[in-house]
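Read as amino acids, tokens; as here:

___
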Amino acid sequence: MFKIGRAHGCEEAWVGTEPDNLPARALYETRNEPHGKAEDFVMYVYGLSKLVETPPPSSS
């Protein structure tokens, strides 16, 4: 991934995982690539495969 990204002029790559996913975090930490400290971040996931309708507000 890094080699292909560099070949296409990308300046950074990122991966994300849950804070408690220690195997993934260990893997990312052992990459022989320069990286900064792991960051906390907020992510919103929008499902696009089907329409999710919001029910109308109740009148009570």
In short: The chain has a mean pLDDT of 83. The first helix runs from residue 2 to 7. The chain has two helices and no strands. The two ends are 54 Å apart (CA to CA).
